[in-house]
Each structure stands twice: as C-alpha cells, then as structure tokens.
Amino acid sequence: MANIYEGRTTNEAIEKGLKDLKVSKKQVDIKVLEEEDKRSFFSILTPRVVKVEMTIKENVQNEEVKKNEKNKKINISNETEKKAEENLKKFLDEFLKEMPSKDLKYTIKNEKNDLFVDITGEDTGYLIGYRGNVLNALQAILNNIANNDINERVRVLLNIGGYKEKREKDLEELAEKIAGTVIRKRKSITLEPMTSYERKIIHSKLQGNSKVETHSIGEEPNRKIVVSLKK
After folding, report:
1. What sign does the CA torsion over 120, 122, 126, 129 have?
2. Residues 15 and 65 in one domain
C-alpha cells in the first residue's frame, strides 16, 4: 500500500513518511511525485509543496507479519497446562537422577501461559555449556516433551543456575561497548551469531540510543546483529 507525504523539501516529506510509518529509509521504496522546483521572482510567495510516495518493501511487511504472529499470546487451557507440567516432571525426575551432580533441583512455574523451568545446584556448568549451547539444546528438548500428546502449543523457557540473568547483564554491557566503538570509529560492527533471545537483549539495550541503530542479518541459527551509525 502506497502512502503520500508532503513537505517543503524532498527530505522533509521523506522524514514525515518515515516517522509516520515507523521504518528506516532502507525499508521503503520512495518515489518523488512533485519535485522541488527553482523559484522565480513571481512565484516566491507561492507555498512550496513537495510530494513523495512511500511503500513499505514486501520483505519488510512479511517480517512484520511473522513477528506479530510470533508474539501473539494464546491462552492455554488448565488441562493443557497440567498435562504439559506432568510431561516435564516425569522427564526431569528421571533426567536429573542420571546427572553427576546429585543435588540438582528444579521448579516449574506458569506465567502468562509460558512454563518456566529453573534448575539449581552447586555444579551446573556442564548443563549450561559454552555460552549456553547445552542449555539451549535442553530447552528445545523440554519444549518437545512438554507438548507431547497435547493439542495446544505450550512454550517452555529454561534457566539453569541463574545463567540467563548473568548472560543478560553481559550482553547489555557488550551492547554499550560495541555502540561506543561504532560511534568512535564511525564504522558498522557485525556481532557473532546469537539466539533470538540474545539478539532481543542487544536490540532492546540500544533501542533508545540516539547515535546507533541495530538490525539482524542471515538465517537461523547463524543470524547476527549489525550495529551501525544512524543516518
């Protein structure tokens, strides 16, 4: 769908459009309908109006639709919630018995239709792995187990030994450090591949920064964040 915006200059019309559509310049196709003209002495008092037509690019629209669909919350029934918890408890009771650390305990909490599993113990490093790779794999397994033999989809979020709180703090510090480097060197920086959970932390931390912006590139599981100067 095309939208038309007006301004005294081409740039002013474009800026109005970007602000209204809440997108960046690279996310839209821009067509100038009425260009800035050279003013004659007799037309100097005539108000100048420049019109531009702006259309959000199809790939941007599709990404936004997918994002909205992904973020939609569906209320699950009590029966589904109970069955999912039973599935998790049955698995975790047996799984933790086989672990080297015998003091491991877990809790399951329901919050906004998500099941939060928290595993604690003195030695949990081997369940977390390098930058959470084992934790992420185990979380995927728990999601499959929780949703076995149920019709509604339940999301399971796993935390082990307070890892996610520590990782969030580390990522926020990294975001600030990278932003400072981008501003100082005036060059974009591409970070290493991260999970969607980790990318969200970086995006959120730098969202309010007036000098830099972030966007993601690549395909899962190698999707990366690019931090660059705002245009």
Report:
1. positive
2. yes
